Amino acid sequence: MAADNNVTSLYCAIKGCGRTANVLCYCCRENLCRNHYNEHDYLNSKLTILADEIDSFDRQLLGVDLKKYIQNSNDRLHQWRVESYKTIDQYCDQKYRDIEQSLMKVINQKREHIEQVRKNMLDITQKRKMTLEVIESLTTNLRSIENEMVDIDQKHLLIQTTPLLLDKNLIQIEELIVEDFDVSSLTPIYKSIDYPRQGIYPIASNNQYLLIHREPYLCLLDRHVKIIKQVAWNHGQIFDMCWSAALSKFFLITLNQIYIFDVTDLTIEQIDTTQKLRWLSCTCSESSLFLSTNENGSSICEFNLLNSLQAAKRWDSPDTCSNDERIHDMIYNKGSLFLLIENSATGRIRAELRSSTRFDRLWAVQLDINYQGKVFSCCLLNYDQWLIVDGNTSRLFQLTMDGKIKSTNQYNPIPCCASLFGTDLLAISTFQGITLHRV
Q1: What is the rounded distance in angstroms from the CA atom of residue 5 to the CA atom of residue 302?
Q2: Which of these, 151, 162, 303, 352, has the minimum number of CB atoms within 10 Å of its CB?
Q3: pLDDT tens sequence across 395-415
Q4: Where do runs of H (alpha helix) occur along 150-228?
């Protein structure tokens, strides 16, 4: 835009203005008064900024590492493939054992037949009743046995196989509808399972199952809170549990021990470590198991999942927290550890996000929670947000990825722990059981 000395006899082009035009806009070739020129120039500048943002977004999309995002999805498909192969292998192993047992049965029957022929021959010999007819009869029996022993597996076992037909709906690829979840407007209970109890009752999920401790069993629930599998648990109070995608197994910790729970064969294995400590919380990354100790001045120990759970690192107070503070819970996500820390001197609780490699603090936020001895815990939500479950005030706190308190919700009955079940269900453990909400 520029001033034009030849437009003094012209009027502003804006309808209804009526003021003398003293500026010519070279962009739109319009004569404008000073006021409308300033407004026009302001709008054009804003439009330029928006155009620059559009260009910036376009460049960001062009710069997206498509291979990285595809690889993340492919990794999930690969994990499903590995677990499916494992199921097929276990099925085949059982059939191998069935074949062995069937053949052993046939062989034992043939041996009994041979033994009977031998017994008859000895009996005839002892009674001196040997004749040509008897010899021919025994020979015929032996030839029959000899014939039956040739290709014994094919003559006595019929193996029939049916082609494995895969349901095309086993894997569904759909576009997610991004909805901004807000815990203050938590949806009504979708499903629930009741079992009143006392104490700490953590829960964990691997997207397929929800793991709970329903005394005296460890139970695996599906998305309809139906118990699919269960196994007896007699190792005492469980303080925390978490899923390891690297091992495809759950970790469970008691005060002094670490256990691995295999959901496929329902085995529970105790892990021996050189560090005999008192444990309180656990979480897994792609390659490590992190454990926090149950004491003031909590330590955090890292174990290598890919190297037989060898001790890798250990962080102690004051790097973790001060000597009068305790780490009650922690969750790993994308190279960071989310910590819930209680100050025993003040009873106050704060949340922190730390780097999982250097352990430097990324942010911290003080929470409106006074610790009164009841359990409080945390879980990861969609889009790198966090949920804090406080049994002291019976509230849920939602935190954004940058540590801002987004919303809260009073929850009844008193909540203990929570876990995201897949991407669309939130499981909450209470003193009365388990409830599921859609998110």
Answers
A1: 77
A2: 162
A3: 999 999 999 999 999 999 999
A4: 152-156
